[in-house]
Amino acid sequence: MRALRGMALERLNRLRDSVRDISSAMGILTENRTERGELAGHNKLRKIIIDRYIVLLARIQGTSLEKELGIDAASTTFKLVEVNRSGSVHNALLASCARAAVTEPQLADLVRREQDADRQIVVMENTVLDLLAAPAGEKDPKAVQNLQLNIENLRRAQESILVETKKRFPRYAELVNPSPLAIPAIQRELLPGELLLYFYATKDQT
Fold first, then answer.
1. How many CA atoms lie within 13 A of 25 on its CB side?
2. CA 60, chain centre distance (Å)
C-alpha cells in the first residue's frame, strides 16, 4: 500500500515523500525468492511499481534530494532494472542453464519436474486472472475455486521438489533466480577502455 501511495505522491510532484514510501517497499518487492511460482497478477504489479520507482530515481539523480535521502540513484536503478528485466525468454534461458549444469540423471529428473510444475502454475494462475476479469454474467466461481485448489496442491508438490533439489544441488536456486549484479561488480569485469551501455524502457521513457 505504501508503494502505491508513493506512486500517487510522485504524480503530485512530492518527490521526497514518494521516494520514502516506495523505497520502504523495495525489500519485499525485490527479495531474491527461491520459490519461482509467483502469482502473475502480483508479478505485473511489482513490475509497474519498480518501473515507476526507476522513473522517480531518474528525476532525483544529481539533485540535492538524492544526497539528502542518502540514495545512490544510478546504482539503485541498475539493480532494479536487473530485477525487473526478467521475462519468459529470460527465465527460460536460466532454466535451460540450470538443466545443463546437472549431470546426475535422478537430479536432472527432479529439476525437470520442478520446472514443469512452475510452468503449469503460471498457466493456471493466468487462467484464474482471466476468469476473474470476465464480465459478471460469464464468471465461473466453481472453475476459479478448482483452479486455485489445483494451484495450491501443485505448489506444495513443487516446494517439496525444491527442498530435495537444493539439498542435492545447492547452486540450483542461484542458477534459476540469480542475485542482480551491482555496478562495482560490472566495473571489475570491464577491461581498460571498455564501456557498458545498458538500455531499459519503461512505459514513459527509456
1. 19
2. 24
